[in-house]
Design brief:
heterodimer; A: 271 residues; Rossmann fold; six-stranded mixed β-sheet; four-stranded antiparallel β-sheet; B: 659 residues; 3 domains; five-stranded parallel β-sheet
């Protein structure tokens, strides 16, 4: 299978060519090497998981992808072009949205307003027009609100539309964060531990939403997750990191069979 | 009305003898008035009667195109959505029979009904419902086509016998010239005796039964009840109760099509309360449980309000309790009291009613279970015209109803217009009306044992008419009314209702027939007790933990003893005092078969399932260990175990039997 081939998964989704490619990425913080010479790619339409023990460098990797960290070595290719070092907000404009390991919402604002902030990259009218809310600003707000309402409907959070997010339970806050990322209509969605701290039912719901997002909008998703069951169930391919190095890459079945991975992360099988 | 149910049949008014004909009339008469509303993407969408007529027609044509035949049964599964109400009428247009199902039914229950009515077509709301149907498809050889409303998540499904609602409509529109004559032909052959709808009763005992209701039953019940409460095209309702329940069919289809009023559907079940406030219906129905829940929420919120607001709330609510009900009933009230009430209305009642979405409620009903007098009076004192009715699926709802000005918490009213009632020697209530059902589908024995040759239908409820007012009072299910060992009357529901009037108690089940003392299971109300626990810094992780808390037990014991004290003064029921009780470690749940989907306790099943606990209650142990099987929403089973405390409650000396 060459890199440009598109193929169809057993459940009928089409996985396209390479959307993002990381080539020999190395990231250092002073003397500490967080990521060492890692290469992998993310294909269009796939769900790509990054796993690894604590401190393996997963979140750093996500921060490299969305431009928060600039690697000392290596190249990032996105949509067929080599990406120059740029600010996260510029990268957000290129269609990369994310959620955070520790929820980063505006607690005093309503669910609706929080999700509206996800539309910022789509708002072109200037501050004065927005303040007086006339002409293009008004039209723009209508268009953006429509998109936000679609997301609210999609994630079934109509009942909390006007609730300040600080009053919401954790599982719902996670969903609002996903909604905000989705409202940006990203081509690549980064999820940093979307199910951390959730109970089984909330995890099932979240998995369903991730699959639906991927299926319905064709959004490419890269996620970090600790729950192995979830990762193996929903992802198409998995990258395994340990101490900043890549030790495995492939389908869930391949990764599960990889001895190095078993030793480093999943533990030795006892049965 | 008079005459016997069999010989004199009521003729249709103005030749309007089917729901599709009512639709055509409404499109003619009220073409641009709103017929359906639904909140979508945060905005209320509305459809006028002429738009609804077009939608229904297109779907009916499309259903013809995929070969729906007269007399077929079409199951409709989903929550209240305009498109699903239209589907029921479209099905009627084609001469087939709509069978709405409870949307929260698990796959097995659904399989039973789909199989029993040999449904050839299913119209389902979304992926969740389609999945349930597909799960049991192999048990249903008669099932041919499935239509779904929400395309989300359905793209990859095999679409050979699966169709999107919009596609069916498009197919119908495309084939208009060819299909319309066939559809017109089918509609013209229907009359007052054609089956309008088949509704499955929830069945507190055994499997559900399919109640066949003709156009006569539905339209007559809708016509007389609409006249009774002066419902008209300007009214509006919020449809949020299960579509499979007869009441919803009468309100959202029967009365809606008869009067032409507008039915609004909430955005999602969770937003119902907010949608209620936005729509402000003028005609409203809710089970007692709803009003109880709402009152609990109001009281909990008031506890969080500022001191000044709390004082003002209490001051004016006390005044409302004193005069509000009388003002609503049109009784004389002094000028000063009226002034004070007007002031209260400005500061408390008005804003509160607005918050509850009841500002415009002109007629409100509650039925299904007894409602606590305090709860009932609370709403009436605010000026909300809340009334009670007594009804059944087999009667197309209406048996008795409370006229304006004669509203009380402890009766269910006088016979509804066009309904005759008699009470037999055992105390069981019988009725006869134009709304009476045709038969139980494929169940002639049950039909014969419920409806006699003269058209009298047994309700299964025991009751009596109050002599001076002519109001009917219901005591309990006739078969549940029994005798204690000493011969005194055992009426469990009467006692359970007294318990359930306490906000802390959600559900109670009383045992004691043929025994020398009564014992009870209690379910606490997680919201009310949970809130109390939070206030008192009592930590809990689950229902089970809270239910086992000693202070909760103390509180419930207090309630039980108060009930005992009031029972001791009742000459008929003073034998029903509760000697011992326990708080169950889980909530009784329809998924476990312990309750019906309309949340009535299935006594026999509870009896069998918790037999160990009943034995312990009748014994003298103070604690018992038990293990119970539970069913999760997706049908998987699990089990929970617990140690339950059994408490002894004080009983009071019985007041001497009245001479």
């Amino acid at each position: 299978m060459s890199l440009d081939d598109s193929y169809t998964t057993p459940d009928g989704r089409t996985i396209g060519g390479v959307l993002m490619e990381m080539k020999n990425i190395t990231l250092r913080f002073g003397g500490v090497t967080a990521i060492e010479d890692i290469s992998f790619d993310i294909r269009e339409g796939e769900i790509r998981a990054i796993i690894g023990p604590n401190g393996a460098g997963k979140s750093s990797m996500l921060n490299v992808i969305n431009g928060f960290y600039h690697p000392q070595d290596g190249e990032i290719w996105y949509k067929g072009e080599r990406r120059q070092a740029m600010k996260p907000h510029a990268i957000a404009r290129q269609g990369i949205a994310r959620t955070f390991q520790n929820i980063a919402l505006f607690n005093g604002m309503s669910t609706l307003d929080n999700i509206m902030t996800g539309r910022l990259t789509h708002m072109k009218s200037n501050m004065i027009l927005q303040a007086i809310w006339k002409g293009p600003a008004e039209r723009e707000e209508t268009v953006n609100r429509e998109k936000v309402e679609e997301v609210i409907d999609f994630l079934e959070i109509q009942s909390i539309r006007k609730t300040p997010v600080g009053r919401l339970p954790y599982g719902l806050q996670k969903r609002v964060e996903l909604a905000r990322a989705l409202a940006a209509e990203p081509s690549l969605l980064l999820l940093d531990e979307p199910m951390a701290g959730m109970n089984v039912e909330e995890k099932e719901d979240m998995s369903r939403f991730i699959l639906d997002v991927n299926d319905e909008f064709g959004t490419t998703i890269a996620l970090i997750e600790h729950d192995m069951g979830v990762v193996m169930d929903i992802s198409d391919r998995v990258v395994v990191m340990d101490y900043g190095k890549k030790i495995g890459d492939g389908t869930p079945a391949e990764v599960r069979a990889n001895q190095e991975v078993i030793d480093a992360y999943l533990g030795v099988s006892h049965d | 009305m008079g005459g016997t149910g069999l010989t004199t049949k009521i003729a249709p008014t103005d030749g309007l003898d089917t729901i599709p004909k009512l639709l055509a009339r409404n499109a003619d008469l009220h073409g641009d008035k709103p017929a359906s509303r639904e909140k979508e993407f945060g905005i209320w969408q509305s459809w006028s009667w002429s738009e609804v007529a077009e939608e229904v027609n297109a779907l009916a044509l499309g259903l013809l195109a995929i070969d729906l035949k007269p007399g077929d049964h079409v199951a409709i599964i989903g929550r209240n959505r305009p498109a699903l109400y239209w589907a029921m009428v479209a099905v009627q247009c084609t001469g087939a029979v709509p069978v709405p199902l409870y949307q929260d039914a698990v796959a097995d229950e659904m399989a039973f009904v789909l199989d029993h009515c040999s449904a050839r077509f299913v119209i389902a709301e979304n992926q969740e419902q389609v999945d349930k149907v597909l799960d049991v498809q192999d048990q249903l050889p008669g099932l041919e086509q499935v239509v779904y409303l929400e395309p989300r998540g359905m793209r990859k499904y095999d679409h050979t016998t699966l169709h999107a609602y919009r596609d069916i409509q498009a197919e119908g529109r495309a084939g208009h010239d060819r299909l319309q004559p066939i559809l017109n032909e089918r509609m013209s052959t229907q009359d007052y005796d054609t089956t309008c709808v088949m509704l499955y009763t929830s069945g507190t005992t055994g499997r559900p039964k399919g109640v066949v209701l003709s156009n006569r039953s539905i339209i007559e019940a809708s016509r007389t009840s609409a006249d009774f409460d002066n419902l008209n095209v300007g009214d509006s309702v919020l449809a949020y109760l299960p579509m499979a329940w007869v009441g919803d069919f009468i309100f959202s289809v029967g009365q809606c099509y008869w009067t032409g009023f507008c039915v609004a559907c909430p955005e999602s079940p969770e937003t119902m309360q907010a949608d209620l406030k936005e729509i402000g219906p003028s005609y409203f129905f809710a089970p007692p449980r709803f009003f109880e829940g709402l009152l609990t929420t109001v009281m909990i919120r008031m506890e969080d309000a500022s001191n000044f607001k709390q004082k003002m709330f209490r001051y004016f609510m006390d005044h409302a309790k004193a005069v509000g009900g009388d003002m609503l009933d049109g009784k004389p009230v002094g000028t000063m009291d009226r002034l004070k009430y007007a002031l209260g209305n400005m500061f408390v009642y008005g804003p509160l009613k607005n918050q509850l979405g009841m500002t415009r409620v002109r007629v409100g009903y509650t039925a299904g279970e007894a409602i606590g007098p305090e709860i009932f009076d609370f709403y009436r004192s605010l000026g909300i015209n809340l009334k009670q009715l007594y009804g059944q699926t087999e009667a197309s709802v209406y048996v008795t109803v409370q006229p304006d000005g004669e509203v009380r918490a402890d009766t269910v009213g006088v016979p509804a217009p066009g309904v005759e009632i008699k009470i037999d020697d055992t105390g069981e209530v019988y009725y006869r009306s134009a709304g009476t059902f045709v038969e139980y589908y494929k169940n002639p024995e049950a039909t014969a044992s419920t409806k006699d040759a003269d058209g009298w239908v047994a309700t299964g409820d025991a009751g009596f008419f109050e002599e001076d007012t002519g109001h009917l009072k219901i005591i309990d299910r006739a078969k549940d009314v029994g005798k204690m060992a000493d011969g005194s009357m055992f009426a469990p529901k009467y006692v359970e209702n007294k318990l359930k009037f306490y906000p802390n108690i959600l559900e109670a089940v009383l045992f004691g027939a043929n025994n020398d003392k009564c014992v009870a299971f209690i379910n606490i109300d997680l919201e009310a007790v949970g809130n109390w626990a939070e206030r008192n810094n009592i930590g809990y992780a689950s229902y089970q933990e809270l239910a086992g808390n000693a202070q909760v037990l103390d509180a419930v014991q207090g309630h039980v003893e108060e009930v005992n004290a009031s029972l001791a003064n009742d000459p008929m029921l003073n034998g029903c005092q509760i000697h011992r009780f326990l708080i169950l470690h889980k909530e009784l749940d329809p998924d476990d078969g312990e309750m019906t989907r309309t949340r009535k306790v299935r006594r026999r099943i509870v009896d069998e399932k918790y037999n160990d606990l009943i034995v312990a209650l009748n014994g003298d142990v103070g604690e018992i260990h038990t293990e119970t099987e539970v069913t999760y929403e997706d049908g998987r089973k699990g089990s929970i175990s617990a140690n339950l405390q059994i408490r002894d409650a004080n009983v009071f000396p019985r007041r001497a039997e009245a001479a």
